[in-house]
Amino acid sequence: QTLRREGFAGRVVLLSKELALPYDRTKLSKGYLAGKAKKESLPLREADFYAQQNIEYREGVRVAGVNLATQEIQLDNQLPLHYDQLLLAPGSTASRLPKLPGHILPGVWTLRTATDASRLLEGIGTRKEVVIIGSSFIGMEVASSLIGEDRAVTVIAQEKVPFQRVLGPEIGAMFQKMHEEKGVKFETEAEVTALLREDGRVGSVQLKTDKIIPADVVVLGVGVRPATDFLKDAFTLEKDGGLPVNAHLQAAPNVYAAGDIARFPLAATGQPARIEHWRLAQQHGGVAARNMLGQQQPYTAAPFFWTQQYGKSLRYAGHAEQWEAIIYHGDVAKQDFLAFYVQAGRIAAVAGMNRDADMIYITELLGKGCMPAAADLRVEMSWEAVV
Ligand SMILES: Cc1cc2nc3c(=O)[nH]c(=O)nc-3n(C[C@H](O)[C@H](O)[C@H](O)COP(=O)(O)OP(=O)(O)OC[C@H]3O[C@@H](n4cnc5c(N)ncnc54)[C@H](O)[C@@H]3O)c2cc1C
User: Fold this and answer.
1) What's 229's domain CATH number?
2) Cβ(230) to ligand 1 under 6 A?
3) Residue 188 included in any domain
4) What's the total number of domains in the chain?
5) Whose CA is nearest to atom 51 of ligand 1?
6) Domain of 196?
7) I need a surface site. Which of 149, 295, 313, 380 has the fewest CB within 10 A?
8) Residue pLDDT, tens place only, 107-151
9) What is the pLDDT of residues 285-302, one digit of tens each?
10) H helices within the chain, ranges in order?
């Protein structure tokens, strides 16, 4: 879209191994799984759009490799394709806990694609005992979408409270309470040792304590890995599978990377980070497109994501894998707050609930590197005035 918007009139080819028009992945664990969003609402654009924009969209085509010397990409069962400029944005693959006994039993699911979501819904049917392994965003959103009067949902978490590593214990405890009030059960600080078979499919989950939890459906929400196996020969990948890029999102001459796979320098600190957020992937795409056209634009926006559970949204801007303190404005228990994550006296990230307007201003300030210092946040303030 950005290439066309910026006036590029040459050939644009968009390849995806999925058999679907590009769609809104974030709806899968929310409205789609809850039965509130129909399949027809998933595509980002109608098929006509690609024709009107003269974008060749080829679905069901897997890219098998890249030859940097000849500027060609290898495709499964098709002739190689030459590129003048290449954007790599293959996203992630859901982890499957390959060492866990029983992980391939029928009834055990991951959630990454629309096909995964449809199969999961079909697989659940009228089944009544859902166990979710993992208490981060996918696991918790799936729990909020699947809990119902005639269906039990148990979340198994390694952490003491959900989201502990990303949002901290107070916000995690608030989310856990929100889920418990809807009937979700939690097994926290727990380790799954096996998925046990019953009548040819998963029947229960065994914990290290030997506790057995009945389960006729298991959802693995245990993280993702960059889908970069096909790039191993062409690039030196990071240990986690990420592809290093510079501030212009360039990985090699005439090659850019965007979204989940790109390990890029954060504007705020210069530190490299790989961030799996929807809006960041979109922003990366726009920046990479402009740079393909010869502009020299660094990616400087503050990373941003949201999660939605039981109709309540939490918004998060910035990036803080660790923090020395969290400063709260408002009341976490009342789901009306801003939480400021402090790193070396600097606000590295902010999470907010019921503070959407403030979060817009704060995201702008973080992007410009103009957030007040932690010491200046002792009292609530007008963020509009600060901007
Ligand atoms: C269920 C779910 C809910 C989410 N909710 C949120 C949310 O609320 N907020 C948020 O910020 N983020 C959310 N995310 C994360 C967000 O969707 C991702 O960060 C974002 O989609 C990454 O975009 P991307 O372009 O890097 O990759 P993707 O969106 O994964 O797109 C990559 C595409 O490339 C295809 N592909 C991969 N390898 C190849 C290959 N070799 N050949 C051809 N095609 C290939 C893939 O099949 C896929 O279609 C969610 C993710 C999931 C799965």
Assistant:
1) 3.50.50.60
2) yes
3) yes
4) 3
5) 26
6) 96-222
7) 149
8) 999 999 999 999 999 999 999 999 999 999 999 999 999 998 899
9) 999 999 999 999 999 999
10) 2-5, 33-34, 47-52, 114-124, 137-146, 164-167, 169-181, 278-292, 356-368, 383-386
